């Protein structure tokens, strides 16, 4: 389920990035990139586990500390939104945004 949660978040943010023209200052491009990277990482993890161990490709429960797949997906997204919020809305993020590489 956390695969679907990440996919849904990535699709929504990507649609907002390309659909809403006045939101460029919020750096939705960076958030979308982080979400798509997370989706690819989780997809590869699910694919390898499915090919090696079998079982369900998308599971709704886990054996870990967080048993709900939906809550796990949300918990995985929280750090991404925190990092994006720091970069998009704080003076520290302004230094990161304007840094020359």
Structural class: mainly alpha
| Biggest β-sheet description | none
Intertermini distance: 38 Å
Total number of domains: 1
Number of helical segments with 4 or more residues: 4
Mean pLDDT: 89
- Order of secondary-structure elements: HHHH
Count of DSSP strands: 0
Cα gyration radius (Å) = 16 Å
The proportion of residues in beta strands is: under 5%
Describe what you observe in this structure.
By secondary structure, the chain is mainly α. The protein has one domain (2-98). Helix content is 72%, strand content 0%. It contains four helices and no strands. It has helices at 2-19, 28-53, 69-89, 91-98. Helix 1 packs antiparallel against helix 2. The longest helix has 26 residues, at 28-53. The mean pLDDT is 89.
Helices and strands, with pairings:
Layout: H1 2-19, H2 28-53, H3 69-89, H4 91-98
Helix pairs in contact: 1-2, 1-3, 2-3, 3-4
Short key terms for the protein model shown above:
single chain, 101 residues, mainly alpha, 4 helices, 72% helix, elongated
Q: Would you summarize the structure shown here?
A:
By secondary structure, the protein is mainly alpha-helical.
């Amino acid at each position: 389920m956390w695969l679907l949660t990440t996919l849904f978040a990535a699709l929504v943010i990507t649609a907002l990035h390309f659909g809403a023209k006045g939101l460029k200052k919020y750096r939705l491009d960076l958030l979308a990139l982080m979400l798509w990277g997370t989706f690819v990482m989780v997809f590869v993890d699910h694919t390898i586990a499915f090919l090696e161990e079998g079982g369900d490709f998308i599971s709704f429960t886990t054996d870990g500390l967080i048993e709900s797949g939906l809550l796990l997906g949300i918990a995985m997204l929280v750090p991404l939104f925190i990092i994006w919020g720091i970069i998009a809305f704080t003076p520290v993020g302004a230094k990161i945004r304007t840094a020359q590489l």
